[in-house]
């Protein structure tokens, strides 16, 4: 083809005549191939079950729900994960004997992933709320669909139905389990708090048992006892002072009585007592050891003690005493006994006072321990009362869930057998095949014409050799040529019809081969399916 002088209409007509067989053959081949492929594609049926979330039937003001109210906007992803869980899908595959052919070339996880790819959970937005959604207003969704696609219409229906029923049953079980676990948890907390309260009470009893008299409530009694002891101690001190004074007085009287003895001279024993009395008098006056009277008196006392030690006890001179002296000595002895008794009583009272003061000093520490235990007891008791109230609420909520009066999932629209497949869209694919065939045919014609360097017209020859062409001889068709051309056209037409028929029959056969083994929504099969399939739960 020569395009130096531009392509004219006659050139296009000539090109069409020369390439018509290739263009039509290519377009027909591509179209028929597309038809065959379209017919060989497996049908895909879709079925879905619509689930409605019903609110609690009992007034929430009377009984609060034990499980949080469902917000589908937030929980749709969680529910989709639950519906598409591996265990649930694996159980459905086994129960319905799905994907038997795929199990020969796939592992279990791949089969589950294949089924999961054909499943979807979609929210259902009512038309009124859809208008609000266009205005960016917050809407509340309370309905969703469980959608399943499969090559078998009945299988799609059974799987969607089974998933809806299983999800509703698992939802009921989950809510009952949650309410039961909440009740068990509260009961466990009550048992724990009761044990801790008993432990605190035992600790308080131990502290009180280990600290008798040191408790805060013993402070007034201890203070009164201490006051009485201090009063008794003062009284004992007065008695001690009086006894000591009496003892000194009667010793002085005995010494005086000995000095006025009727004998001419005092005995060593009497003289020793008199000297001792004089020594005590000097000491009471504050004389030091270096005072002449103290030195003389002590020297005389040493001499008298030596004489008393060397004298005969049976000598009447040593034991000579008057009645007044004996009476004074007896009174002095009794005064000494009173002094000793008063001293012992003072010591006893001082010990008791020290013991009570020690108890009072230890009381703050004991009070601190008891305060800590008391605060813990109050905290535990408050928690126990709080959990006791919650246990009553949890019991009512558990009964609410067991009777299925709380939030429920209900099948609003049961799954159905799809009357026709949703894919492939064969009319659209056939139109695309035709368009593609025409495009490919045009490209093939242009490519062949561009690759052809032969001369077809007088103008092309004149342009190629740059010489004028004097004359051109048209193609001469004889009768034999016309008969051969007719035979060729008949063969071409028969071949074309045969190819078309083969493609049509082959496409129909491939359709039957691919989709003939699956149940479709024809009248009899739909009725049988509706009878054979298990009933859909009206309410979870």
Question: Can you offer a commentary on this structure?
Answer:
With 540 residues, the chain is mainly alpha-helical. Helix content is 69%, strand content 5%. The protein has helices spanning 9-40, 72-83, 86-96, 108-117, 127-134, 153-210, 219-259, 268-285, 292-310, 323-402, 426-451, 458-465, 479-515, 523-532, and strands at 45-54, 119-123, 143-150, 408-413. Strands 2-3-1-4 form a 4-stranded antiparallel sheet. Residues 261-265 and 521-540 have low confidence and may be disordered.
**Structural class designation:** mainly alpha
Low-confidence runs = 261-265, 521-540
Q: How much of the residues is beta strand, in percent?
A: 5-15%
Residue-averaged pLDDT, rounded? 75
Terminal CA distance = 77 Å
Record the SSE blueprint.
Layout lengths: L8 H32 L4 E10 L17 H12 L2 H11 L11 H10 L1 E5 L3 H8 L8 E8 L2 H58 L8 H41 L8 H18 L6 H19 L12 H80 L5 E6 L12 H26 L6 H8 L13 H37 L7 H10 L8
Antiparallel strand pairs: 1-3, 1-4, 2-3
Short description:
The chain is mostly helical and 540 residues long. 69% of the residues lie in helices and 5% in strands. Among the domains are: 1-43 and 424-534; 217-388.
Q: Descriptors for this entry?
A:
single chain, about 550 residues, mainly alpha, four-stranded antiparallel beta sheet, about 70% helix, rod-shaped, disordered C terminus
């Amino acid at each position: 083809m020569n395009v130096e002088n531009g392509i004219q209409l006659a050139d296009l007509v000539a090109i069409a005549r020369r390439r018509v067989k290739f263009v039509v053959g290519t377009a027909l081949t591509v179209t028929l191939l597309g038809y065959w492929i379209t017919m060989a594609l497996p049908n895909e049926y879709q079925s879905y079950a619509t689930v409605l979330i019903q609110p609690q039937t009992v007034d929430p003001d009377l009984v609060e729900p034990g499980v949080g109210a469902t917000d589908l906007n937030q929980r749709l992803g969680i529910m989709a994960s639950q519906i598409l869980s591996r265990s649930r899908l694996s159980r459905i595959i086994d129960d319905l004997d799905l994907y038997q052919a795929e199990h020969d070339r796939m592992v279990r996880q791949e089969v589950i992933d294949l089924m999961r790819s054909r499943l979807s959970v979609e929210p259902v937005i009512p038309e009124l709320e859809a208008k609000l959604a266009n205005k960016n207003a917050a809407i509340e969704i309370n309905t969703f669909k469980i959608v399943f696609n499969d090559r078998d219409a009945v299988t799609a229906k059974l799987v969607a139905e089974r998933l809806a029923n299983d999800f509703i049953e698992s939802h009921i079980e989950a809510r009952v389990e949650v309410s039961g676990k909440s009740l068990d948890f509260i009961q466990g907390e009550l048992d724990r708090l009761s044990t801790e309260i008993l432990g605190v009470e035992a600790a308080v009893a131990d502290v009180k048992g280990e600290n008798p008299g040191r408790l805060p409530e013993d402070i007034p009694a201890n203070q009164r006892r201490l006051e009485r002891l201090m009063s008794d101690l003062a009284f004992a001190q007065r008695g001690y002072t009086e006894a000591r004074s009496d003892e000194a007085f009667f010793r002085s009287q005995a010494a005086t009585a000995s000095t006025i003895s009727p004998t001419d001279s005092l005995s060593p024993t009497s003289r020793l007592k008199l000297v001792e009395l004089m020594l005590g008098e000097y000491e009471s006056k504050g004389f030091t050891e270096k005072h002449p009277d103290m030195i003389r008196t002590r020297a005389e006392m040493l001499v008298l003690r030596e004489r008393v030690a060397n004298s005969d006890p049976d000598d009447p001179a040593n034991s000579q005493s008057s009645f007044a002296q004996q009476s004074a000595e007896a009174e002095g002895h009794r005064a000494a006994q009173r002094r000793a008794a008063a001293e012992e009583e003072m010591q006893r009272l001082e010990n008791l006072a020290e013991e009570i003061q020690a108890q009072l000093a230890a009381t703050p520490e004991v009070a601190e321990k008891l305060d800590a235990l008391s605060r813990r007891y109050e905290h535990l008791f408050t928690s126990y009362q709080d959990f006791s109230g919650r246990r009553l609420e949890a019991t009512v909520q558990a009964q609410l869930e067991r009777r299925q009066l709380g939030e429920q999932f209900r099948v609003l629209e049961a799954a159905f057998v799809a009357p026709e497949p949703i894919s492939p869209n064969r009319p659209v694919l056939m139109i695309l095949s035709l368009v593609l065939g025409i495009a490919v045919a045009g490209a093939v014609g242009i490519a062949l014409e561009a690759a052809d360097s032969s001369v077809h017209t007088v103008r092309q020859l004149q342009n190629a050799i740059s010489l004028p062409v004097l004359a051109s001889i048209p193609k001469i068709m004889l009768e034999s040529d016309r008969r051969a051309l007719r035979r060729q056209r008949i063969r071409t037409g028969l071949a074309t019809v045969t190819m078309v028929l083969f493609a049509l029959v082959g496409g129909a056969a491939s359709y039957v081969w691919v989709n003939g083994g699956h149940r479709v929504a024809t009248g009899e099969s739909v009725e049988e399916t509706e009878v054979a399939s298990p009933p859909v739960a009206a309410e979870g």
